[in-house]
Amino acid sequence: MTNHPAAAEAGLTLNDVEIRLGTRMLLRLSAAVAPGTALTVMGPSGSGKSSLLAFVAGFLDPAFTASGTVRLDGETVTRKPPNARRVGLLFQAPLLFPHLSVRGNLLFAIPSGAGSRQERMALAEAALEEAGLDGLGDRDPAALSGGQQARVALMRVLLSKPRALLLDEPFSSLDAALKEQMRQVVFAKARERGLPVLLVTHDPEDARAAGGRIVDLGT
Ligand SMILES: Nc1ncnc2c1ncn2[C@@H]1O[C@H](COP(=O)(O)OP(=O)(O)OP(=O)(O)O)[C@@H](O)[C@H]1O
């Protein structure tokens, strides 16, 4: 059997990533995040956590200078535009489109070319069911609870078939019980789908739930 180099490098790889703001070195990081595992990045406010996610996703503000490489499943994407990278982002707020129904939000995420309209509808329905949201497809996102909105946001990002999940304080707006529930759901689904996760958080409980390595930019 041939040992294909790309296969040996499944997941998200950061090589010698350096991000500077003017003359200030914000961060230096090399890491390999295997499919279904997580890397948690912690550190004080202003240490560059969100900038790291922006660099990996391809939309780092030009105020920063960055070097190093980002690889996804062996493909170097450092110079590719965000849409060609196929990474999925989840932020503190669910950021659902308010003018689309819940189903519309899910359909919007499905890559073009993912089958007929009927097949796409079936994917959206399956996602609603998987998230325990059956029967809520016609609602406006604003008519859902915070926990339900968070689950729509998660299913929307998973339907986009990302090669990695980038999470920026994804649970911080949820109350304690929901927070724990969403942690379980998000990391279980990432493991199930074999997605590498890059998590930025202030909360050690998020890091615990994610498992895997923790990098502290403050030390
Ligand atoms: N567009 C920008 N132009 C100039 N400076 C910026 C810009 N965005 C962020 N910064 C600065 O860059 C530094 C790193 O910001 P970043 O948001 O990456 O930190 P962070 O660790 O995610 O912080 P927090 O935990 O508060 O979200 C901060 O000093 C911030 O003020």
Automatic annotation (TrEMBL):
It comes from the Bacteria. One of its GO terms (molecular function) is ATP binding. Residues 7-219 form the ABC transporter domain. SUPFAM superfamilies: P-loop containing nucleoside triphosphate hydrolases. Keywords: ATP-binding, Nucleotide-binding, Transport. InterPro entries: AAA+_ATPase, ABC_SmlMolc_Importer, ABC_transporter-like_ATP-bd, P-loop_NTPase. Gene3D superfamilies: P-loop containing nucleotide triphosphate hydrolases. This is ABC transporter, ATPase subunit. It comes from Polymorphum gilvum (strain LMG 25793 / CGMCC 1.9160 / SL003B-26A1).
